[in-house]
Amino acid sequence: MSDSAxxxxxxxxxxxxxxxxxxxxxxxxxxxxxDAWLMMAPALIILLIVAVYPxxxxxxxxxxxxxxxxxxxxxxxxxxxNYIKIFQDRKAVNSIIxxxxxxxxxxxxxxxxxxxxxxxxxKAFRGxxxxxxxxxxxxxxxxxxxxxMWKFIYNDQYGLFNDVLYRLGVIDSYKAWLSTSDGSFMALxxxxxxxxxxxxxxxILAGLQMVSESLYESAxxxxxxxxxxxxxxxxxxxxNTVIVALLFRTLDAFRVFxxxxxxxxxANKTESIAIYSYKNLMKFLDFGYGSALAVLIFIVxxxxxxxxxxxLGDKLTDMEG
Amino acid sequence: MGKNNIFKLLLFYVxxxxxxxxxxxxxxxxxxxxxxxxxxxxxxxxxxxxSYLHGEFYKNVFxxxxxxxxxxxxxxxxxxxxxxxxLIGASAAYALARLRFKGKKFMLMAILSISMFPTIATLSPxxxxxxxxxxxxxxAGLVIPYITFALPxxxxxxxxxxxxxxxxxxxxxxxxxxxxxxxxxxxxxxxxKPAIFSVALIVFIxxxxxxxxxxxxxxxxxxxxxxxxxxxxxxxxxxxxxxxAAGSVVVTVPLIIMVLIFQKKIIAGLTAGGIKE
Lengths: 321, 277
What we know:
- The structure holds two protein chains of two kinds.
- In chain A, 74% of the residues lie in helices and 0% in strands.
- Chain A is mostly helical.
- Chain A folds into two domains: 1-61; 93-284 and 291-317, Orthogonal Bundle (MetI-like fold), CATH 1.10.3720.10.
């Protein structure tokens, strides 16, 4: 075609072909978009009905006086009164303080232990597979089961905890750990750290394995010490992994329910907001006030996520193919 | 130098053994409790190794409590949840990873943020919804919320895996006259089979372990799942430590076996979400 006698018609022909191609391309994109929405539809419908709508309804319920045992009240709209009540309610305030204390203590211990364990185990050694499997087991079992296990370990007479500490000479008589508030707090923290620090170690270990050995080698040659190498190579390389792991752990710790429900039931000042909210919802059937507490958890969790996201930047969604 | 290295290695193994020891000790203790005679459970100071094997607690678990039924309920609910959320999630993930449309980034962020919804914050509305639909004490009443909370994770991880596949697969198939659905089911799904398996394991374990929904939506004892059933072993009159120990061993052993066999798959799934350079 290039040796056609008429150059003008040649150009026109080219344009015509291009135009057709463009049109075809456009219609392909639009059927592609239609197919994309069709393929996402089932997931989106379920998420809308069973996640988004309930959150909105929770918020709506929290603005009403709605005690299910008192349908005569007509469930009136009371604005933000339930939220004001939270801050006048001694039990609610205590549960907020407890939850914050629990979250900060467990997450920092888990990060410390998890990071240290990951750094130490970041090399090839015999039995690594077995160690990794052992690490996964606490994560894999139901929290209620691990809580029951540990509850018996803390038992005042027959428990392993007293037995070991007594034999080691740490205590001179058996203690009823779960009947004091400090003891209960410590027991809950140990159990939570036992279940999730290994998991944290696993995630950080996976991040560490992406740091190439040659980086350390060249830094060593340049005379960088252990601390410098950690600060300038390890830390920046695993930062994102650690932040994501921290985010999920913080959210989980703040919503803590299963562990406390089984181990102390909220006794001895160990009532988390989730436990207190659940009691209001399902025991006192006070759906208004219980929902307000639940929405409060949602808002705090949302703020925590935003803070982490900010630190993380756009890393999470940098995945357009 | 040699001596120093041996010392370092020794220190390293001491640490590893200590670390693993602390992880395993509670399981060991629980297992021993489950096979001890009652008198030795109550021994002071504690008797670590029972003097003879005592199997009654295991019998109790299945005769005093409907534990077999709990296991069946959990197995059914968790596997149905897994299959459905993989099917629904993979199709959405494929669209998010491989198809061009506007608002992709927003959809991904929206789905991810749903995974941060605290279960307690959706509990009462879902409870009311299930009540209106007469789904309290029905398997569907548990499976539907479980799918909802498995979906963000499933979609997130599978989108990651789909977008790692090289470009061009679809075009070749399109030229061969394959429809979009054909491409998805016959070409793309088989390609990420290993990833699907990893995600399925995690979804299954999460559903198997869930507590708040199961506690609230299944009030009939025969419909309870394992985590709730075992948590309700203690009654007002007694704390059956032996039964609880035996029950937890029955739940834990299959999970340990699963973890030992599939650890690489599980870790691949767990770390895929977080690490993305």
